[in-house]
């Protein structure tokens, strides 16, 4: 998940830096990749896709979550069982998927709305969030360096995911995690200010952007982070509470987002100069782009399959926490591309003092 996700961000940034400035088309490719997971869902045996997994988290009493409970309706007795993923809800028996860490009676109440939503609406809702947040994500890479965008985005998503877990999912969040959120918040603010200050002083940032470009990029990242967290937390509800099959969810949300995107794309892209004629001109002048786009679609399929399986087996908050590890990888890959390619428009250079600020924020 971490390696493929880093490759996805770096590949998109390299394409945009090379002169292919069509983020709307990238969004179409992204959702086409998500849609391909329907093939995976059909091809993989259903027994391999069972999500009644054993978790490594511990509940609030320190009990291993492998130890769960089943409620015998006939005898009215609670039995312990291992790995079955069963919890007691009143006098009904219901299987439970994912991490139980921090969940309690309030969490059950907070999830009741999920069962009132028809299942066919669930991937459509997730698809809307996916479409909007990824359109903002690709657009932000036109204004902000990939590593800076990834760091601000990952940090904001971590903070917002903890808030969503606490106030929407009703998970109990430990004091140590709140302390971590505060530290991450400070790091995000430092990275954003460092790039804005460098641009305002006339220094070249790692993306070569002006103050205006940096401000636009950061605003896009903030909007994208909010929508991304809403997508993740909604998927956690749908996958864990409604037990929607994860790969089917990914394929259908990608298909929903792609359908909406195609409706919006043609009128909007023509106005922005990103219509089909412009794309065809790019293909004509550079046929190698076709191979790149095929690889990009497959990379999106693999990355998002890992992402949605991570949410299913753990939680949206845990997935975002692990995703922060790819931020440093994106930065290192950008530096390597810059110095190995010999093309000043690709990758990210080591800039003083901005890169030291970035390094300090990583630490």
Largest sheet: 2 strands, antiparallel
Order of helices and strands: HHHEEEEHHHHHHHHHHH
Helix share, percent:
55-70%
Strand content: 5-15%
pLDDT averaged residue by residue: 75
Structure description:
This protein is mainly alpha-helical. Helix content is 65%, strand content 6%. It contains 14 helices and four strands. The protein has helices at residues 2-17, 23-35, 37-43, 105-110, 121-140, 146-167, 175-200, 211-241, 246-271, 276-285, 288-313, 316-323, 325-341, 354-362; strands at 67-72, 77-82, 86-89, 92-95. The strands form two sheets. It has a two-stranded antiparallel ribbon with strand order 1-2. A hairpin with a 2-residue loop joins strand 3 (86-89) and strand 4. Helix 1 (2-17) packs across helix 13, helix 6 crosses helix 8 (211-241) and helix 6 (146-167) runs antiparallel to helix 12. The two termini are 22 Å apart. The relative contact order is 0.19.
């Amino acid at each position: 998940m971490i390696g493929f996700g880093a490759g996805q961000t770096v590949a998109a940034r390299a394409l945009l830096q090379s002169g292919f400035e069509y983020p709307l088309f990238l969004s179409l490719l992204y959702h086409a990749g998500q849609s391909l997971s329907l093939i995976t869902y059909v091809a993989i045996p259903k027994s391999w896709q069972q999500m009644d997994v054993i978790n490594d988290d511990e509940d609030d009493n320190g009990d291993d979550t492998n130890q769960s409970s089943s409620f015998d309706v006939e005898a009215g007795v609670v039995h312990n069982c291992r790995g079955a993923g069963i919890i007691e809800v009143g006098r009904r028996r219901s299987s439970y998927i994912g991490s139980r860490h921090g969940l309690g009676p309030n969490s059950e109440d907070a999830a009741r709305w999920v069962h009132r939503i028809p299942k066919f609406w669930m991937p459509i809702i997730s698809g809307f969030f996916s479409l909007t947040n990824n359109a903002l994500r690709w657009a932000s890479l036109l204004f902000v360096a990939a590593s800076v965008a990834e760091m601000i985005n990952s940090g904001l998503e971590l903070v917002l995911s903890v808030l969503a877990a606490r106030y929407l999912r009703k998970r109990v969040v430990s004091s140590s995690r709140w302390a971590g959120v505060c530290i991450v918040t400070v790091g995000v603010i430092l990275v954003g200010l460092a790039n804005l200050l460098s641009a305002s002083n006339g220094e070249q940032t790692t993306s070569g952007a002006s103050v205006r470009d940096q401000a636009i990029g950061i605003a896009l990242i903030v909007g994208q982070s909010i929508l991304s967290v809403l997508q993740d937390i909604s998927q956690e509800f749908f996958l864990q509470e409604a037990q929607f099959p994860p790969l089917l969810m990914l394929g259908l949300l990608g298909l929903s987002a792609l359908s909406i995107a195609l409706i919006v794309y043609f009128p909007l892209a023509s106005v922005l100069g990103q219509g089909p004629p412009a794309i065809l001109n790019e293909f004509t002048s550079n046929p190698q782009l076709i191979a790149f786009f095929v690889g990009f679609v497959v990379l999106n399929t693999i990355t998002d399959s890992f992402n949605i399986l991570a949410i299913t087996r753990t939680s949206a908050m845990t997935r975002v926490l692990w995703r922060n590890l790819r931020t440093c990888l994106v930065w290192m890959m950008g530096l390597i591309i810059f110095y190995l390619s010999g093309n000043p428009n690709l990758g990210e250079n080591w800039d003083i003092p901005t890169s030291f600020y970035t390094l300090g924020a990583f630490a």
